[in-house]
Design goal:
The strands form 3 sheets. A 9-stranded mixed sheet has the order 3-4-5-6-9-10-11-12-13, with helices on one face. The chain has a two-stranded parallel sheet with strand order 1-2. The N and C termini lie close together (6 Å). A hairpin with a 5-residue loop joins strand 3 and strand 4. Helices cover 30% and strands 17% of the residues. Helix 4 runs parallel beside helix 5 and helix 9 runs parallel beside helix 10. By secondary structure, it is an alpha/beta fold. The structure holds S-adenosyl-L-homocysteine and iron/sulfur cluster. Iron/sulfur cluster (SF4) binds next to loops.
């Protein structure tokens, strides 16, 4: 046990941001419905009309994907001109789009301040999942995660969070055509996972507001059960996520003893396995149809023994759960190796026999560095990978 202790968080400051677009005018994307109404009033819309106008503008932006006020044909021309004078509809700029041999698409997006984030679209049989980022970098320093080697630059705004969905829909060409309104299961973009860069529960309000927009029935209209938020274990915010967002929850569990988890997921030093499990047991609506996903990265010789598998099922006893085994995705300078396929299968088998679904996540988009834990801003990747604490568990 001679590995240097990894700090829980990086020494960084998170800067709050206003909904200001690059040209200085107010961006309507990312405002809550009330926020949109207030903005329209502040720009001169009579109060008694404001709710209706906000509803109309909302539908143009989130249901039809329109970016120009000129195209909002159910509004009077002078009103459209007024909107164009005060506001913009701005989403992150796509700097690069890569498509993997397996169809996975990765977007490198530029946001205000010249920062960059990555968003990944994963097509699957019967659904399409968008993996979105919540921060530029991450405050936390999980030792197996590429994003964790990147200092946090800032939290994303609600506009930048929901904007990732809008950009993907642009690319997929999935804004409704007249008379065509695909059902969830036939949509190209049917599911959201907050599993990109960053710890979503450390950017709670922006993630909540972005997801509320995504769930709004008069817009992108994704059901709360098609959104999964993944956390490394920010215990005090877990109940709040259930109350205020209501989405499904995934937890980056990754170890079965505090000693090992302290080193893999350093936030464990603040909230250990027991307190995390207590918070999960209390997660409202916990039922078999809304099970918690336990993510478990398979690291050769570190956390992948039969004993680990047995401890895992014992720890989560009584929690409706599914265990998602993630073969470790390597990145340049990573201090771990992926467990062998046989080891992963043996581990999965023990978990399965204890009564839990134990799917092994197929790495997607590895050829374009789009797989879990490989995301990092391009500017950061160009720099030499920082030295990480060696894995000498
Ligand atoms: N910050 C959140 C969400 C982003 S990470 C969290 O930690 O849960 C999404 C998932 O990918 C997490 O379960 C994370 O532990 C896992 N992950 C990170 N790096 C990985 C890697 N190199 N290989 C496989 N999975 C990784
Ligand atoms: Fe951050 Fe999640 Fe990576 Fe940990 S695993 S460093 S919490 S993005």
């Amino acid at each position: 046990m001679t590995a240097p202790a990894t700090p829980i968080t990086q020494d960084v400051l998170t800067l709050p941001r206003k909904p200001v677009a690059t040209d200085g005018s107010t961006n309507l994307v990312g405002l809550t419905r009330d926020g949109l109404r207030d903005a329209l009033i502040a720009a001169g819309t009579p109060e008694r009309q404001a709710k209706m106008r906000a509803g109309q503008v909302w539908q143009w932006i989130y249901q039809k994907g329109v970016r120009e006020f000129e195209a909002m044909t159910n509004l009077a021309k002078p009103y459209r001109a007024m909107l164009a004078d005060h506001f913009v509809i701005e989403v992150p700029q796509v700097v690069r789009r890569e498509v993997s041999a397996d169809g996975t698409r990765k977007y490198l997006l530029r946001i205000a301040g010249g920062h960059e984030v990555e968003t990944v679209y994963i097509p699957e049989e019967g659904r399409g999942t968008l993996c979105i980022s919540s921060q530029v970098g991450c405050t936390l320093t999980c030792s197996f995660c590429h994003t964790g080697t990147q200092r946090l630059v800032r939290n994303l705004t609600p506009a930048e969070i929901v904007g990732q969905i809008m950009v993907a829909r642009d690319d997929l060409g999935e804004w409704p055509e007249p008379g065509r309104n695909p059902k969830d299961e036939t949509r190209l973009l049917s599911n959201i996972v907050l599993m990109g860069m960053g710890e979503p529960l450390y950017n709670f309000e922006a993630v909540r507001d972005g997801m509320r927009i995504a769930m709004d029935p008069e817009g992108i209209s994704l059901s709360r059960r098609r959104i999964t938020l993944s956390t490394s274990g920010v215990v005090p915010e877990i109940a709040r996520a259930a109350d205020e967002i209501g989405c499904l929850l995934a937890v980056s569990f990754h170890a079965t003893t505090d000693d090992v988890r302290d080193r893999l997921v350093p936030i464990n030093k603040r909230w250990n396995i027991e307190s995390l499990l207590d918070a999960l047991r209390a997660y409202p609506r916990l039922s078999n149809s809304e099970r918690i996903t336990f993510e478990y990265v398979m690291l050769d010789g570190i956390n992948d023994s039969d004993d680990d598998a047995r401890r895992l099922v014992k720890l989560i006893e009584g929690i409706p759960a599914k265990i998602n085994l993630i073969p470790f995705n390597e990145w340049p300078g990573a201090p771990y190796r992926r467990s062998s396929n046989n080891r992963i299968r043996a581990f999965a088998d023990i978990v399965y026999k204890a009564g839990y679904a134990s799917p092994i996540r197929t790495p997607r988009g590895e050829d374009i560095m789009a797989a879990c834990g490989q995301l990092k801003s391009e500017t950061e990747r160009a720099r030499r990978t920082e030295r990480r604490a060696p894995a000498t568990l």
